[in-house]
């Protein structure tokens, strides 16, 4: 059933650090041209983002990756609006099971439940990437289908680069390769607004106690050695 299909599922769906687990097809698909290869593209909603620094460390394992724009790692979802990101894996591993780490943003606190926000990720798209426009055109003519095509910038760069730069990657949908992702649901915790008052009170109390403790240590008389003790230390 899955001989020519990518299987994708969520790992650690509850919390702020989910991952996507990928299982490549048992028999990799043949590229339409020698200068073309398989790529994966993910569309991430505002509540989900990748950590570029973490992805950089995974390049030896997962290959070159391109993010549509560098995400702010600290902003809650209320400060990013409807901003969504795209993540492309230009050379995804074709053997073995591998995972892609993601992160979720803090949700807007509520006075009433539910205390989780359900986010559903769209299935990844399988693409053919061609490093030369000529190869891309040849692949299209051999394929015989009219497919939407677009370009990516140079590997390792940010997608939102200067539009005047000539693209080095041309991609189009690989319709012959399927994706099996029955449920890519994430459950993100939501804070309780009613907790804000006692959290602020406890934080203030701890800060006050810490300040008094530092002041107490500063006022302690420092022990001084007598002349006889100093001579004993010298000898």
TrEMBL record:
Belongs to the PIGX family. Pathway: Glycolipid biosynthesis; glycosylphosphatidylinositol-anchor biosynthesis. It is a single-pass membrane protein. It comes from the Eukaryota. GO terms for cellular component: endoplasmic reticulum membrane. It comes from Piptocephalis cylindrospora. Its main location: endoplasmic reticulum. The chain crosses the membrane at residues 198-220. It is found in: Endoplasmic reticulum membrane. The keyword Transmembrane helix applies. This is Protein PBN1.
